[in-house]
Amino acid sequence: MEWFDIDWKGLALPFAYIFVLGGMLYTFSTIYRKRKASQSANLAPWFPPHLQKNIYSSLLEINAADNHDKKTRVPASVVRTALLRRAVEDIGRIIQVRSAKQALNTLLQRGSVGDDLMQRFSRAEKEMEEELRDVVMEANALAPGWGQAIFQSANEIAANTHLRARIDDIQAQAATEKEWWEKRRQCISKEFMKELDEEEELSKAGSVRVGSDDEGVLVDSTSPATSPGGSKKRVKK
């Protein structure tokens, strides 16, 4: 049958074109993904280095290295405290992430921020999720069931720390505010005394004018008056 006869030579060029185009697209996609991954890796982290996490890891390494020497081992209470401080730092970072997420989404919709910033934020969110799971696992390894309560304790510690810092700030500002109020009180006192002095001076000036007018009336009333007939009469008061 003739319709089964295919001209392969005529189709070679279209197939070659499709093959070359597919290879170019694959090469471009591969290079693009590698470049994006390289850029993402070079982006600055959202948070600074996790000091409390590094301390906790160092304590675990010390205990692992000195497994047979009980004198140099870090006490379990110190390790638990280090993990709790790590959880407290995580609480602060979680609050920052939640506070920034809504604002960043709004700015992204307006086109005010770039993709690099959102990539940094997304990576920070993933890192925090992994960090929380790691802390829970470590807490359960140190004390069974502690993973369910460690972040509750960390939240209370973070709240108390924030409250103490606020109180310290208020106490630090108390001396400055006291000095300001003292100056303000002296200024108000001076203005008040100045007003009293001005009122007193005005009162004295008014009394002097009134006394002068009365004396003029008395002199006129006691002076002799000449009658039409030429006789003098004293005016009765």
TrEMBL record:
<dbReference type="GO" id="GO:0031207">
    <property type="term" value="C:Sec62/Sec63 complex"/>
</dbReference>
<dbReference type="InterPro" id="IPR018624">
    <property type="entry name" value="Sec66"/>
</dbReference>
<protein>
    <submittedName>
        <fullName>Pre protein translocase subunit Sec66-domain-containing protein</fullName>
    </submittedName>
</protein>
<keyword id="KW-1133">Transmembrane helix</keyword>
<feature type="transmembrane region" description="Helical">
    <location>
        <begin position="12"/>
        <end position="32"/>
    </location>
</feature>
<feature type="compositionally biased region" description="Polar residues">
    <location>
        <begin position="220"/>
        <end position="229"/>
    </location>
</feature>
<feature type="region of interest" description="Disordered">
    <location>
        <begin position="199"/>
        <end position="237"/>
    </location>
</feature>
<dbReference type="GO" id="GO:0031204">
    <property type="term" value="P:post-translational protein targeting to membrane, translocation"/>
</dbReference>
<keyword id="KW-0812">Transmembrane</keyword>
<dbReference type="Pfam" id="PF09802">
    <property type="entry name" value="Sec66"/>
</dbReference>
<keyword id="KW-0472">Membrane</keyword>
